[in-house]
Amino acid sequence: MNNSSGGRGGHYSDRGHYNDRGNDRNGHNGTAEVIAVDVGSTWTKAGHFVLRDGRLSLVRRASTPTTVEHLPTGVLELVRILRTADNRVPAAAANRGSTAVPGRSAEAPAGGACPVVCSSSAKGGLSVVAVGIVPELTLAMARRTALSAGARISRVFSYELTEDDVRTIDQINPDIILLTGGTDGGNRQYVEHNSALLARLSARPHIVYAGNRAMTDRVRERLTAFPLAIAENILPELDAPNPEPARAAIREIFIRSITSGKGLDDLRQLTAEPVEPTPLVVYEFVGALSRLESEWGGICVVDLGGATTDVYTAGAQLQADGQRVVQKGPPPPDVLRTVEGDLGMRVSAPAAVESRREFLSGPHSPAGISRCAAGMSDYAAELRARPAHLPQSDAEHARDRLLAAACVTGALERHAGRQREVYTPQGPVWVQTGSDLRELRTFVGSGGFLAAEEPDALTPLFRCASLDERGRTILLPDRWRWLRDRDNLLPLLANAARRFQRAACLAAADHWKGGTP
Amino acid sequence: MRPCVIVLGVIGSDCHAVGNKILEAFFSDRGFTVVNLGVMVSQDEFIDAAIETGASAVLVSSLYGHGEIDCAGFRDRCIERGIGDIVLYVGGNLVIGKREPAEIQQLYHSMGFDRVFGPDADLDSVAEFLAADCAAKAVPAR
Predict the structure, then answer these.
(1) Annotation marks residue B14 as catalytic
(2) Which of B33, B40, B45 is opposite residue A422, by nearest beta carbon?
């Protein structure tokens, strides 16, 4: 595979933003439908959506424990349930394990040949090791690019790789190594060195080279033993990031090769679209939402899971206004995804308590919290040992809420950009890194805990710091509207959006504001 | 031959942007590949950019008089960061008050700058020096 032609835009760009093509593709009587499936690490979930008169309704949903030994088994089971369900009786009565969700219409079409779209984050998702030179430049871009492609970043390396690093990569055994370094015509020394070191790997992961164009031939000749994709440089000039070609290359590898490694290629016959990483599908969806719901003033989605906290923002970036704000580092992207591996509700609970010690013991904690905070370390250790644990008492419930607040505020603080004021002979100037999110107004909470909890109960807890440890302003809003992704529909709607983008966005907006899709 | 890459910027808390733009236009016109970092650039930002772009030279401007503080230890930092052999120029209003040009040169040479220019420097000769110095150091494979 060779992506050197690169440059092809985002996955959906060729379709127009809101062209719901399903409308006339599989429609009958002005309706169209899709079954959306999300294969998670523990649960596989599916929803049957029907599009009628531009509105998308969830007719029925079902879930089953993920069949780790063979992922398609669970998917096929759910599709069978949803396709054969008799629409005149509530689905729950007909099928064990499936949950009926009230639809807009009692006469939804039976999903006989209904197209299926599927995403997966099972079996560790898409594991990427990123290699760059300067941490704030090519390595930052490599990290950002891999995350935007839906990857889980297993490790990053700056400057020169060592023999130890090579052994570490062999141990990690990632799906993909993203090798970057140097602007076009720029630094050659590090890619020269690092490609030679990577050639010594025992494992044979995919390698995407997206560094200095001048080193392409050298890299190709060095890494003949590996499945290698060449993409355009992610940072051809210091102030001109170019993540799309490398992102497309990663996505292509996932679809063509990695899904088969995880046993998902058996689904190729079944699905109308390629199986994609779930975070990539959500990333695209958040971008589409921000374009559609412009009155929201940008959107932030926080996906709080057991192991990680993912934050996506789009459409909120304030433009640095000339003289008074000086932006440093590569310009922020339109849609930004960050993933915090040490902030999570179960497996990562001990790490979260450790990282957020100051928040948990700080003077900002609302009254009554300090009492819960005292036992947090023990509770977190218990959660790690038993990730399926649900709170059994009011005290445990309070601790869960506090843990969620620690994770969410920590992830948001790291996600947002920073400004510091500098006094100059010409007056004060603000030096900025990252995204200015102070105009952001809409926050959507997703993932098991946030989907279940009443947002009003959380709002007083979700108070981010205004200054970071270096005294810089954290560019988050003072106040916001916290919405909740009840029933965890986000991954299903994001998949449905691959067929009916505009309608799925409208349905999500409705749902989060309290309606029933 | 690969065009000579130079990194340009105004150091410290100095936001004099006009001269910086003029220098960018001038050196680009003379065939250099200019990586312009603009105003309010820290030592590490100069060095990060020089590493990533494989630059042969760093041209530091300072107009507001605090260059003496901002530029202290620049060469040492380059050495620490692995680009100790890079060509370093500095120019502008480099000190506060009236001081002899020779004294100013001496001051900045001691910080490791290869050439030191006042506010009235002749850009044509700077470009000639720069081409010669880059060729002499010849570090194309960074």
Answers:
(1) yes
(2) B40
Each domain of chain B, given as residue ranges in start order, spans 5-137
User: Is A424 in Cβ contact with B14 (below 8 Å)?
Assistant: yes
Fold of A13-120: Nucleotidyltransferase; domain 5 (3.30.420)
pLDDT tens string, chain A, 517 residues long: the values are 333 333 333 333 333 333 454 443 444 455 799 999 999 888 899 999 999 988 899 999 999 999 988 899 999 999 999 988 754 334 433 333 444 444 444 344 444 578 999 999 888 789 999 999 999 999 999 999 999 999 999 999 999 999 999 999 999 999 999 999 999 999 999 999 999 999 999 999 999 999 999 999 999 999 999 999 999 999 999 989 999 999 999 999 998 888 888 888 888 888 888 999 999 999 999 999 988 876 677 899 999 999 899 999 998 766 656 568 888 888 889 999 999 999 999 999 999 999 998 888 866 555 556 656 678 889 999 999 988 888 898 888 888 988 999 999 999 999 999 999 888 877 888 889 999 999 888 899 998 889 888 888 787 788 889 999 999 999 999 888 788 998 889 999 999 999 999 999 999 988 888 765 5
Strands (E) located in B41-124:
57-62, 87-92, 115-117
Identify which of A133, A326, A424 has the shortest CB distance to residue B52.
Answer: A133
Q: Which CATH superfamily is domain A127-261 in?
A: Response regulator (3.40.50.2300)
The residue behind tokens 């205004």 is A466
Fold adopted by B5-137: Rossmann fold (3.40.50)
Measure the CA–CA gap between A205 and A227, rounded to whole angstroms: 7
Q: Which of A137, A192, A419 to mutate to test the interface with B (most CBs of B within 10 A)?
A: A137
Which H or E element spans position B126? helix B123-137
* pTM of the shown model: 0.87
d(CA A283, nearest CA chain B) in Å: 29
- Torsion over CA: A19, A22, A25, A29 (sign): negative
Our CA angle for A349, A355, A357, nearest 5°, is 95
The verdict on a CB contact (< 8 Å) between B54 and A182 is yes
Query: Is B16 part of the annotated catalytic residue set?
Result: yes
CB contact under 8 A, B2 and A323: no
ipTM of the complex: 0.86
The one-letter code for the residue type at A44 is T
State whether B53 and A189 contact (CB < 8 Å). Answer: no
**Do B15 and A426 count as a contact with CB atoms less than 8 A apart?**
yes
> Least CB-CB distance to B48: which of A137, A188, A426?
A137
CA–CA gap between residue A30 and residue A342 (Å, rounded): 48
